[in-house]
Every structure is written in structure tokens, then in C-alpha cells.
Amino acid sequence: MQNLENSLSKDIDSIEQSRSQGWDWYLVAGSLGILAIALFLHFWQLGTIPYPVFDESLFGQYAKEYLEGNPTWEGHPPLGKYFIMLGILLFGQNEIGFRFWDASFGSILPLLVIGLVYRLTAKRNFALLAGLFVFSDGLFLVESRLALLNIFLVSFGLVSQMFLVSGLAHQGKLRTLLLCFAGLMLGAAASVKWNGLGFSLLVFLLLLLVGAIAKFFPQQLSKLGVLAEITKLHWWQYPLCFVVMPIAFYLIQWLPLFILNPGVPSGENIWQSISAFPHFLVAIHQHILWWHSTDIVTSIDPAHPAHPYCSSAISWAVLARPVGYYFQNSNAYFAVIQGLGNPLLWWFSTLAIVGITLGSIVPKLQKSTNIGSNNYLLLGYFANYVPWLIVKRCLFLYHYMSASIFSFIALAWIVYQLLEQKGKLRYLGYGIIVTVVISQLFFLPLWLGLPILPKDFYQRIWFMPDSWSGFNWI
């Protein structure tokens, strides 16, 4: 066991040394280049499409109500609306004000992915590829150019993972501090929407997996890289960082709504208000549960769907049913915002998840040098995807966003390995990158709401209703 710990310590030190030497012009320039183009795409003509679009009519209104002092009880926790409210305070009740923070979060999202992958593996090209693929997606671009919530959820989830991996790579008080920040960000993800709990499920499964490997396959522990440091945490760090901190953040973010709640009489002393807070929490969560179980959102009858863009969770990985956010027919041109992922990126990414899954369970396909990052990607993907398969309500493609991040990273890992080959396989890697970028450019008009001729619009709608069983892009 002592030899194993020494080997693991050497591996961690080697990774840390690689990181300390890795922030050179190549990684920095690549990251800044992606950020610059992302900022342009997210803020260019941000105010051209008039507010409100799709669910902006809901979330923007909720944010305005906080400013007016009479917030509505609705179907999600309030954290995301606070950011929209802050944009309104900064820029006014206009398109830029409503959408500013979504666009900001969406612009830096590829950098969060780059940071997470680099902290996890210390592989610069792998990290840059992961950031490039996230940047190339259309659904993330659409969601972050409108006053919606999902981009906040995914961003906080990724930040939680960055703090987690960074905490495991450090020692002492700094480790505890970083892991506490990871817990706070787990709470923040769930404070946007409850499905942000997928990132907490990821951490829970990761703790179980590493613990099981340490107990039953200790010889494999050194192959987990920095994730093996989970076995060295003090017992009290687990409940403090991964239970107390997320719950604390989640409870505190309700305070503005509680203070503005008309059911809490003004003038009461502080202790009476504190005693009223648990009753408020019970009532608001009963309301959210009712909201998610009402017939308005639960109908899954194909003949009478709750919404025309409802889709089954099993269809998301193949991009069968996108969401139409906006459509305008003016002067023989269409202006369309289609919640459509980058098709080639999504299909390649799904194949990557299948390939890595097979590589993890089929002995002949296993790679002994990457079980840590591979298992982490699979846990991240399935923790954010599988729970949706048992949900009995109307669902939408954007519910797949948290899982899709891990599938994009999985594709980046496959492409990175192809590029490391010396034979013809490396050209397959370059081919995947080129086709993903070309697909991004081809579909940009449908993501940005640019004027487009009807014939050009239909060229991009590859699946008309009933043309392919289960697929419908209209």
C-alpha cells in the first residue's frame, strides 16, 4: 500500500508539474481566441430580435417582479431570475438588459470546459478541443442569447467540477476551501433548476466509484489520477463540502423571495421571521411540486401533448426533436431561432459516449492509462441524463444540455487520441473537427435569427414531419 501511495503521489506531482509548465502561449492563445469569437457571436446583434422570445416572457417577467417587490411563486428556484434582474438594473428593461448575463455566461462557458479538462488531465490539446466543440454547438448559443435559465445551471455545474478537481489537487486548508466552493456551486446549480442536482449526483457517484476501487481494486487506484485523492479526504470533509455547503447555498438563495413574500407580515421581530422561514420553504416547495405535476406540463400523449415541442428523453442524443423559439416571415425572408444543436457534433458525441462506454466494460477495449477521466466523463453524462428517462412529463431538448457537455468532452477525447496517431487515423480526427466547424457555420443563421430565404431555411431542416420516424425539425 505504501508503494501504491508513493506511486500515486508521483503521478499527482507529475500532473501538477505539467500544469505549471503548460500555461504557455499555445493554451492561452487558443483559449483567448475561442473566447473572442464566442463573445462576438453571443453579443452581436443581441438586441435585434425583439423581446420576449419563447420562455423569456416568463423568466423576464419574474425578474421584473423582483424589482417591483412582488415576485411570483413559479416552478423553479429563484437564482437564475436574480441574474436577469441584475441585467435589467444595469441596462434597463430592453433586449440587452434581459439577455446580458445569459450572453456573458454563454461566452465563457467554453473556457470553463477548457479549465475543467485541463485541471483533470493536464492535456492542452484535449482541453482546447473540448472548448472548441462546446463553442461549436447551436443549442448552447441559442439558450445564451435569450433570457433563459439553462446556461446558468450548466455554468454553475461546471464551476463546481472545476473547484472539485482543483481541491483534490491541493492539500491542507486550501483543499478544504476549494471543496467548500465546489459544494456551494453544486447548490447554485440546483438553485437555478432542480435538474442541476445532476451535478451533485455526479459527485456522489464519483465518491462511490473511487471508494469501491480503493476497497476492491486498490492496484487500479493510481490509474485514476487526481481523482484518487478522494480516498485521502478527512471524514468530515465529505458532509461539510458535499452536503452542508450545497444545502446552505440553496436555502440562502430563497431569502429575497421570503423577504418579499406577502405572506410574511412586516414589522415582526427577527426571531418571528426566522421561525416563519421553514413554513415558507415548505409552502414554496409544495407549490413547485404542484407546478411540475399539473396537467399543463405532464401530458405525454402524442395526440394531445402539453406543448408542440415536447420530446422523449431517449430522442435527445440523436437530436430528433429540436425546439422552435422564434419565427418571423417578413419581406420574403424568414427570421428563425431554432433550438437545434449542431447535428454533426451531437451525432459524433453520442458515438463517442457509446465508444467510451464499450471501452470501459469490454476488457479487450480497455485502456489502462485513462480510466480516471473516462469514468468521470461517463458518470457526468449518465448522472445528468438517465434520471430524465423516468420523468413522466413534457420534456424538451434543452434538458439534455448538462449531459451533452460531457458527450462533447468525450468526443474531444476521441479526437485527441486520433490526432496523436502517426498513421492515417489522425486525418479522421482532423476530418471530424472540420465537419463540426462547417456544420456550425451552415446552421448559424438558424441560431442567430438572421434573415434567410425560405429555400435556404428548408435546406437546413433535414427532417420534415413524418419524413423519418421519430424525427421532426420543424
Question: What can you tell me about this protein's structure?
Answer:
- There is one protein chain.
- The chain has 474 residues and is mostly helical.
- 64% of the residues lie in helices and 4% in strands.
- The protein is built from 19 helices and 3 strands.
- The protein has a 3-stranded antiparallel β-sheet.
- α6 packs across α17 and α15 packs across α18 (425-448).
State the main characteristics.
474 residues, mainly alpha, three-stranded antiparallel β-sheet, 19 helices
Q: Supply the helix-strand structural class.
A: mainly alpha
Tally of individual helices: 19
> How many beta-strand segments?
3
SSE string, helices as H and strands as E: HHHHHHHHHHHHHHEEHHHHEH
- Overall, the morphology is globular
Approximate strand percentage: under 5%
Strand order of the largest sheet: 1-2-3
Number of structural domains: 1
State the end-to-end CA separation.
59 Å
Radius of gyration: 23 Å
Percent of residues in helices: 55-70%
Mean pLDDT across the residues is: 90
Please give the largest β-sheet. Answer: 3 strands, antiparallel
Model regions low in confidence, pLDDT < 50 over at least 5 residues: 1-15
Membrane topology: Multi-pass membrane protein
Family: Belongs to the glycosyltransferase 39 family.
Organism: Pseudanabaena yagii GIHE-NHR1
Function: Protein O-mannosyltransferase that catalyzes the transfer of a single mannose residue from a polyprenol phospho-mannosyl lipidic donor to the hydroxyl group of selected serine and threonine residues in acceptor proteins.
